[in-house]
Please model this.
Amino acid sequence: MRVAVIGTGYVGLVSAVCLVHMGHTVVGVDRDTEKLTLLQGGQSPIYEAGLQEDLELAMGTGRLQFHGDLAAAVGSSVVIFIAVGTPPLPSGASDTSAVAAVARGIGLALAGDDQPRLVVNKSTVPVGTGAWVQDLVAQAATTRGAAAPPVTVVSNPEFLREGQALWDSYNPDRIVLGSDDPVALLTMEQLYAPLIQRRCRGCDLRHPGPIPLIKTDLASAEMIKYAANGFLATKVSFINELAQLCDRLGADIGLVADGIGLDKRIGRAFLNAGIGWGGSCLPKDVSALLHMANSHRVQLRLMGAVADVNRDQRLLVVSKLQKVLPVLKGCTIGLLGLTFKPSTSDLREAPALDIAAQLIHLGAVVKGFDPYWSQQDHWPEALGSIHPSPTPADLARGCHALVVVTEWPEFKMLNWQELGSQMHQRLVVDGRNCLDCSALTAAGFHWQGIGRNPSPAELAAAL
Ligand SMILES: NC(=O)c1ccc[n+]([C@@H]2O[C@H](COP(=O)([O-])OP(=O)(O)OC[C@H]3O[C@@H](n4cnc5c(N)ncnc54)[C@H](O)[C@@H]3O)[C@@H](O)[C@H]2O)c1
Model:
């Protein structure tokens, strides 16, 4: 099928590449000319494992193009994906202005056109947006004196995880399709058939059977996305609150999580205590869910508490530092990992930004090493107040403490003897409970985790 993907960010670019590997012909459209120049030259503007290679392969087929002409892309496609950003407004509501702009652009481009098309919403949007998009397309066409084009809106929420975006797109746990038109759902099922049958590049054939397909109405599909992110955020905030109690009672949150996670009704995923959730999705989707509920006079008390716990959790590492360094003024603190999670370049709502701001507010000097950003030619504006370090050893030099903010796998291999020898004081706060505490103890570090209280036997084993 001929497909247009409007918005070539994390979701749009990865989707465009996957659609090509499913056998479709795809045009990616963006209003960001810098991004387009990179993409036209075969360069991915973002880092995601395997993306650069799969982008090159997709472009090599001759079935993937990128340009900025929305009208031309829409006119030549039967399926039009909307994958633009829906960032939070100051009120917490989702800013759907980019979705609206694209919907109007589609309506103007299709004025007078009578070929049936699907407009598929992959952006995360408040419940009711699908119906609104349908109206916006029709209204825009009428401003050109034309009848509403035969466009059907489908909701197809995206569940990929940044850091594993490509893998998740080839191997989703389920595909959700929402529309009030059964023919539109059937067309979407045909579009996804190679993926559903696990017949395209990147599909993990060890998985038994086809990918589950949920076909539902527009509103339910839109709600499924918010419910999924709301529930994941709840699991994290739940374990983080319990971790604080473990710290007081001497229990170990990792063992507690293992103990409850083996229960199939609970599951172990998203039960790793730490600094809490960040990124471009969970924070804004939880806020949007709360905002939606408020505007319909429904009180989501649990969701409100989940957000509050997460906000406080970020700054817990600062209190942990203060236990050993009561006066942070004049101290140098090194942050290990700055992106909101490992294997991504994404700094949106990254806990590192809040932690650095609070440390600087208390008078500390903050240095940072990030396995992605420390390798780039430029240090991004968002990290402007953090002094860049090219290596972990450089980061450690002169530090009074190190804080693990993001659990990049390479941090498990660090040579703590060497780092300690560079430091002013051997202190580590492991904000992700990802380090081997016995190795740290053996290297003479005073360390603290989040609810992590290993038994004396475990620690003694290292000595
Ligand atoms: N990033 C994730 O992990 C993830 C996961 C699931 C769902 N989502 C949702 O998917 C949507 C997209 O997220 P993202 O992370 O890919 O965003 P992004 O900011 O990385 O990308 C959005 C892209 O849309 C482009 N754009 C904006 N307005 C445009 C317009 N009028 N015309 C053409 N291009 C336009 C931007 O230039 C940008 O390149 C959001 O609603 C998000 O909530 C994101």
